[in-house]
Amino acid sequence: MVTSILHRLSGIVLAGGSLILVLWLWALSQGEKRYEQVMGLLGSFPGKLILFGFTLALFFHLLNGVRHLVWDSGHGYEKQTSNQSAWLVMILSLVLTLALWSAGYWVFEAFPGQKA
Amino acid sequence: MAQLTLPKNSKITKGKHWPAPDGSDPASITTFRIYRYDPDTGDNPRWDLYDVDTSKCGPMTLHVLIYIKDEIDPTLSFRRSCREGICGSCAMNIDGRNSIACTKGLDELKGKGRVISISPLPHLSVVKDLVPDLSDFYAQHAAMEPYLRTTTPEPQKEWRQAPEDRDRLDGLYECIMCASCSTACPSYWWNGDKYLGPAALLQAYRWLIDSRDEATGERLDALEDPFRLYRCHTIMNCTQVCPKGLNPAKAIGEIKKMLLERLV
Amino acid sequence: MARLQTPRAKITGLGSAGHGSQHFLAQRVTALVLLMLVPFVLFQFLAAFSSGYESVRIWAGSLLGTSTLLVLLSAMFWHLKLGVQVVVEDYFGGWVRPALLLINFFGCLAFWLVGILSILKIFIEG
User: Fold this and answer.
1) Cα separation of B178 and B100, whole Å?
2) What pTM does this model have?
3) Which residues of chain C have a CB within 8 Å of the CB of B228?
């Protein structure tokens, strides 16, 4: 039941995230000034915190979505299997989120101010 | 529709405490917190506390309830019949989980010295104490037309079925209709008037895949509905609680697969 | 007032709606599209955040970038509309339900359009 609630919660969170994506695309279409404004907002500390939350919600929803697709194909319904896949999804979504942000920092140097 | 707070007359108040008789061994005393409600009195429901010497009664939760009714408080109402997990009468919420009291061992209720709560199946109207009103639940089962539907004239001897086809009914026909699964399902709580619930849908599937049945298409038509079937979001509570170890979630998933097979 | 209705009459209600599987299928198909696109797009975004406005515009304006974004946005808002619809149907009844369903539909349509037009603008301007 916990993963079901989290799936719904993360879905609602991602609905908000999709609006940010649209905002970003709109800014990109409006020219450099608007784009830098929006990027400044997203790159600020609260902006980064919100983006981190969205990343976590995205990975959880994505992975738990895979779990749902496996169920819909008729597999993984056993009590023990579904409990194990629940833990797997929760742990993996956390790991992937941290991995993505680490890659963003160390590999892509995507944080504001990292590249002069 | 979701209803997250109880109506005023359903708020549970503090009830009586029934202590164990003097001289009983404190090591074998377990306190049971039991939901009490009698609509005839007009009083709100209450939690009564019973200190039970579990060495004096059998090993199952039902034994405790019978002990309480016989020895402590005869006004306690609950349903029970077979006392061996085959009639489904004594389904209730034991220690936060739906189950049938007759097969729920006291040793399964972990944590010595903890208060064990027993309440009726969630989100149903209560007739008295631990007895819920199952009229809608039974109507949902009846609406699944749980019998063979055929148009071919009745054969002289019997409707024949291959052993492999009979095997497919295993894990489905064993349902005892205790309602533990349906009343553990949030979708059933919020939309129990339209969503059929896991128990009825498990039965629907049992007849959908019966090789002898000739009304499969009509049965599927009746389920093709955003609420009747598709309120199932694979929350898995049904499978988690089923006291017979059946898997309603999987049966519902198979119905969805049948509908898709018909669609694409 | 309690209605004098048999449980069977209450459960049968207005009968079966005759649909629901299409919704279920669309939710899964859009999920599959998103499952394939999101990892790719996440990678692209990381690269985008590390480079400046110009290179992001070049990627978004390329044939690959534009088509990826168009498909992503369409699948995303379709999936979103279907998902929020289920949540609304679960928790709300009476007149609130159709009201919220309409807001959901038109909201998704509006934001989808803004996104699509922005992508096309970038593509046309090059």
Assistant:
1) 7
2) 0.94
3) 16, 20
